[in-house]
From TrEMBL, chain A:
Subunit description: Part of the multisubunit transport protein particle (TRAPP) complex.
Name of the protein described by the UniProt record: Trafficking protein particle complex subunit
Family: Belongs to the TRAPP small subunits family. BET5 subfamily.
Alphabetized CDD domains for the sequence: TRAPPC1_MUM2 (cd14855)
TrEMBL record, chain B:
PANTHER family hit by this protein: TRAFFICKING PROTEIN PARTICLE COMPLEX SUBUNIT, TRAFFICKING PROTEIN PARTICLE COMPLEX SUBUNIT 4
Family the UniProt entry places it in: Belongs to the TRAPP small subunits family. TRAPPC4 subfamily.
Protein name as annotated: Trafficking protein particle complex subunit
GO biological process: endoplasmic reticulum to Golgi vesicle-mediated transport
Pfam family, one: Sybindin
Species whose genome carries this gene: Brassica cretica (Mustard)
Organism domain of life: Eukaryota
Alphabetic keyword roster: Endoplasmic reticulum, ER-Golgi transport, Golgi apparatus, Transport
Subunit-structure text: Part of the multisubunit transport protein particle (TRAPP) complex.
Gene Ontology CC: endoplasmic reticulum; Golgi apparatus; TRAPP complex
Length: 169, 141
């Protein structure tokens, strides 16, 4: 039996040079698709302008959720493809990996979606995403001046987030 | 014993050319499987657009709550993907083996039209054998 050799078709991805930082970027969306936060630590390639990039990311996640709910081999009751699912309804994915990045996703019951894009060899980041949601609740949701549905501008949140993400291995 | 639920093969344009369902619950009818295959083809392409670095070749593994999806894209652009239980080992080797079977029993078949649905008996027989759990464990060596 002859298998494919281990050589890669594409050149290996560049190793992030920022000190101790494996994350490329992070998005936070609310249930309406508004991008509440976009943070970039290491992104050499920008394919689209920011607005299109956010819309594409949200669209991709929406469609992938729809796909996983439909493809679920365990549940017999499934809605039709393309019908918007409530947060928590139906099977949802928590991460996907390509040869150049790994995307970890978490959706809270209130519809807040947290996305972290990291190096492909990163492990399971579900606990980290829960912790980040905890930071969001503390610094953003509990902030009396914050207007829900608008982009997040909290300095404390940004600092705490930066510190935490740098410590994720 | 970790199980394989289904296997899909899609052509360069995203059309479903082969679908094998080994699961008991959650069976999809033909129309749904066609839609799911096209959706996957588009998602695979969009994921390349969102890459932070150069050289992305699309989604290789999707992890959901109740299943994992492994995808292999050959050089000409044919995609092979398998839906299995979370944590099933050796799926990449299985996909490469299915690609071998595809080249041997489908592409080399003089009556097979490229990009059309696969109707080759030998391919089906060999595939069924390969998907049985004891064979998958052998592939991992």
């Amino acid at each position: 039996m002859q298998f494919f050799g281990g050589s890669e078709i594409n050149p290996s991805p560049q190793v992030p040079t920022a000190s101790g930082n494996n994350a490329h970027m992070m998005y936070v969306f609310n249930r309406n698709g508004v991008c509440l936060l976009y943070k970039e630590w290491n992104r050499p390639l920008h394919t689209l302008n920011p607005q299109q990039d956010h819309k594409l990311m949200f669209g991709l996640l929406f469609s992938l959720k729809s796909l996983t709910a439909k493809m679920d081999p365990v549940n017999a009751e499934k809605g039709n493809l393309g019908v918007p699912q409530l947060p928590g309804q139906g099977c949802s994915f928590h991460s996907f990996r390509t040869n150049t990045y790994k995307l970890s996703f978490m959706e809270t019951p209130s519809g807040i979606k947290i996305i972290l894009v990291t190096h492909p060899k990163t492990g399971d980041l579900r606990e980290s995403l829960k912790y980040i949601y905890g930071l969001y609740v503390e610094y953003v949701a509990k902030n009396p001046i914050y207007n829900p549905g608008s982009p997040v501008k909290s300095e404390l949140f940004n600092t705490a987030l930066d510190q935490y993400v740098r410590s994720i291995s | 014993m970790a199980a394989i639920y289904s296997l899909y093969i899609i052509n360069k344009s995203g059309g479903l050319i082969f679908y094998k369902d080994c699961g008991t619950k959650g069976r999809m009818d033909t129309n749904d499987s066609l839609r799911v295959a096209s959706l996957w083809h588009s998602m695979h392409a969009i994921s390349q657009q969102l890459s932070p670095v150069n050289g992305c070749s699309g989604i290789e593994l999707l992890q959901a709550d109740t299943f994992d999806l492994h995808c292999f894209q050959s050089l000409p652009g044919t995609k092979f993907f398998v839906v299995c239980e979370p944590g099933t080992p050796h799926m990449e080797s299985l996909l490469r083996y299915v690609y071998e079977l595809y080249t041997d029993y489908v592409l080399k078949n003089p009556f097979y039209e490229i990009e059309m649905p696969i109707r080759c008996e030998l391919f089906d027989i060999n595939l069924t054998q390969a998907v049985q759990s004891d064979r998958v464990a052998l592939l991992g060596r």
